[in-house]
Each structure stands twice: as structure tokens, then as C-alpha cells.
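INFO  loader      accepted 1 record
INFO  loader      residues=203
INFO  predictor   begin
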Amino acid sequence: MSVCVWGEIGRIDIMYDQFMDLEETEMDLRVEKTEKAIKNAFIELRARKPLEKITVKELCALACINKSTFYSHYTDIYALSEAIEKETVTSIINSIENLEEYSLDTLDEFTRAMSIAFMSQSSLIRILFSGKEQNHLGQRMEQELKRVIFRKYPDHKTNIETNIFLSFCIQGSYHAFLNNPEADGETFVKTIEKIVKCLQPML
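INFO  predictor   done
INFO  writer      dumping C-alpha cells
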């Protein structure tokens, strides 16, 4: 086969690859757009009613998609809710600056940073984790933050006093945040930090 023919085949291969890349990009954008529509519709509905009252039918109508499209993304409403909860927890944890640098001697500073992270996503938290789902965020936050802390301090993983104190810091801060919506951010953060600072010498 001549060099010219091989060159032409090579150009065709490149064009095909570029076409396939473009197709994949367009597909990714469509999937991303659908995901966004589904999640926005869910949050809008969740702000108005409990999770168990939301139906796939009304969500699809609000998101302007059909049921088959929804089910190609999620098995049911609860799977969607869990996925958004996990994303929210990850977002909150990622917003805690220099998370890996905190030590067991600076838990007051750590709790302050965590409280600020809660406040930064206050509206979304109060929508997603209301009603029967209220405890979910505290549980997920405790699990993930302990994983980070014990990765740095593995010897403390089985220390019951450390575990109790961390549970108190994480769960206490979260429930204080939920139960005092009238508190301004500065007062809330300062109070939580002050409490942990007073208790820390007991650890």
C-alpha cells in the first residue's frame, strides 16, 4: 500500500478519534445537565415536603425529564437523597481549611473551623437534613472526620475517651447549629469554640 494511502487512513483515524471525543464531550455535558436538573428539582421539592412524600413522577415533571431518564441515574428517590447527602458532607469537609493540620491539642480551633463550615452551607443543610433525616449529617460528619483524624493519630482510634470527646465536638456542634437557628454566625462559632476550649484539658 502506498504512503499516500497510509497517510489518508491516518488522517481518517485522527478525524474519527476527534469525532468520538466530541461525542463523548457532548454526552458528558448532557449527563451533567440532567444530573443538575434532577438535583435542583429534588432540593426544590425537599424544601417543601418530607423525603418520603416526594415521588419520582413529580420530580421528573419539575426537572423536565422522563422516568426512564431518572432511573438511568438513580434507583429511587432515596438513592438520590443519599447521593446528595454524601456530596454535601464532602463539600462541608473540603471547606474546612487545613483539616489535616489540626491536632488533638487544637480541637477548639478544629471545632471552630467545622462550625464555620456548617454555617457556610446553612440553607442547604436545613433543607436536606430536616425531619427524619436530621441525624444523618451528624453521623456522616463524625464518621468522615474521625477517619481523617485517626489516619493522622492511629493510636487514638481505640481510645474511648478520645472517641467520646470527638463525638461530642462533632455531634454537639451540629445539633447546637440545628437547634439554634436564631443565633448569628459569630455568636454560634465563638460559643462552640469557648465550650470545647474549656473541656479540652479533660482529654
